[in-house]
Specification:
Chain lengths: ~425, ~425
Amino acid sequence: VAELPAFSSRAEAAEADRLDPLARYRDEFLSREGGPVYLDGNSLGRQPRATAGAVSGLLDEWARDLVAGWERWVELPGAVGDRVGRLLGAAPGQVVVSDSTTVNLYKLAVAAVDARADRPVIVGDANDFPTVRYVLQGIAAAHGRRLRLIDSGPAEGAEAAAIAGAVADDVGLVCLSGVNYRSGAVADVPAVSALAHDAGALTLWDLSHAAGAVPVQLDASGADLAVGCGYKYLNGGPGAPSWLYVRAAMQASLRQPIWGWWGQQDQFAMGGAYDPVPGVGRFLAGTPAVAGIVALDAGISPLLSAGMPAVWAKTRRLVGLLAGRAEELLTPLGARSASPSDPARRGGHFSISHPHAWAATRALIDRGLVVADFRAPDVMRLAPVALYTSYVEAWDAIDRIASVLADPSVGAFVAKRRVT
Amino acid sequence: VAELPAFSSRAEAAEADRLDPLARYRDEFLSREGGPVYLDGNSLGRQPRATAGAVSGLLDEWARDLVAGWERWVELPGAVGDRVGRLLGAAPGQVVVSDSTTVNLYKLAVAAVDARADRPVIVGDANDFPTVRYVLQGIAAAHGRRLRLIDSGPAEGAEAAAIAGAVADDVGLVCLSGVNYRSGAVADVPAVSALAHDAGALTLWDLSHAAGAVPVQLDASGADLAVGCGYKYLNGGPGAPSWLYVRAAMQASLRQPIWGWWGQQDQFAMGGAYDPVPGVGRFLAGTPAVAGIVALDAGISPLLSAGMPAVWAKTRRLVGLLAGRAEELLTPLGARSASPSDPARRGGHFSISHPHAWAATRALIDRGLVVADFRAPDVMRLAPVALYTSYVEAWDAIDRIASVLADPSVGAFVAKRRVT
């Protein structure tokens, strides 16, 4: 991946906005004129303008059709799953939408561990998102497995080199993130998957910080299993349902631990013994959150319309702009990059570390300048979102962060963790 | 429980409607004038008039507050859980709302089985709702337990007498439903809980068909654990999140299998090792479906306002009316009761069996007469809902069912299972 040319002036950023082929999508999301620069779409994506109508349409269906609405709603986990799959390079019939990311991760990790019953080790990343680590800890404790954690360094990611040392023939499952939630480091999914497969292990990817931001080609990557969040770059709203992917060839041979009626053959016959459908539907458990799926569908529509290549092209330029200006303006103020030094390994967000990161993040919000995201102990994450963040916003955000980091009152602010 | 006086005429039913202290709640739910009698609120409750505003308010919060909305939303699983608890006789701090009923059942059943590690048997009911049976089958298979299924008879319920024979000192968990989903039979929760406790077992109750319809006093009942559905009598809409109850005294000693960041102490510190909060929050896993919880909150508000004693008083009269008229009009047409013969053991719905039940249910819907619910092979469930079903509607419903059962074309209808 070639390094992109840096922006050298605000006028140049404004010109990039003028030429931006994605500019028209900005108006498809709700935002307040003159509000802060929103760089937290990787925590909670903005609300698409179409969401209210989609949800209202569902409420109308519920009011009008009552229980008969299920004749249509029953298809939603698979239908919207297939649309998520289009974003992720997954052919139809491999993705369903339901449950939370944590629950989906649990279901797939247990399925994988059970499928490799003779292999006592699960490989994970000590720097991974908490819920991934906790789910694996719980499974290891309950299933008599050992966790072998790679430590890829807080500013890097799950590199093939680090993993090569950890993956041996005692490993049943390699569970990593496609984009690290702190640093934004991108994993080499095909290389890691190949390594894991050579050793006889399965791979499970948490793509919460990847899906909708960076290119993902699930079918081509060799990934066996994946899950991801619906409320970050997929814009599904707070607590949106998660999606899960199981490669078609593996579906019939894997069995998840939560045996529920939504995974059952001929579900409404309510037969005696659990006998799951052969396809990806066997990874459903209970009744899916219909309103959440409808909102998620509205959330991914602009991404499907824009296409991931265009989204990624702009994301890279935005992240490059942030990284370049941060180097220029924030490094002299005591910040350092908390993202990969190699631009080719950066995903959809850029992070800095600074001793006053918490107070600065708080001050930026309180002063209505920038909504960034703090991660303990000292990281500020900056996530521009291609569909609704402009180059000028990204440019201005660094100026504003610099003004706050340079403000002596911010450094004196007593640190008290904010809840997000 | 004294038998209620039967209704002897439609005029008497109309008079009961005129005097009904709950009549005003009817207008708090959306319905179509002249539509069919809706007797399927135990599959999907009607939509409260307030739901659209509540959901729209959440969308406004999302649009306006973005990620800062979490400062409020983070409290919702517990706050709405406490309100559900008020309906169920549970003091605050014992109920949370999140995930599906299937997932919650799984979490609590595994927690209970793990807490009784030396006891190899789980007692369940062969006539229970499929997802309950499947979840227990999966746990038994994965955890090396045996299922001991009582067979309480399709028209009866989980009776203390039947259970006494099954519960011995090899039993770790007794998992039953408070109201049977087919017959509407009510279990004696205090008696069964006492039996189980005498044997050293824990109890887990699926109250999906009980909560919001029949009286439930969780704290007083001796139940250890319970779960229930949000989209039946609690009116939360299709796929509404479920609730779970864990008796306060047991919370710290139970650990659920899905170790997620929403159960973690000091969640946003994102610490290294899973260390769950001491309270009921440890039974959360991933990010809860905020829109679903908000809609559920709107769904239970009319129940909290009306109060469960008034709801139950009317439910009993409605079910009694259906049972009495079914005996009079439907028995001569080949139907028989599929609900307990003892009125005191009937819950919130009344079921009949008839060889043409499927075709009749379909014809009642197609002709816009009654929305009832078919359960294979031959059961038609009739669920009047105290807050929005009138006595006259219940009266008329039996006339309409009789007209359809008497129609020779319905009997000739080729049975093809309907999807609901």
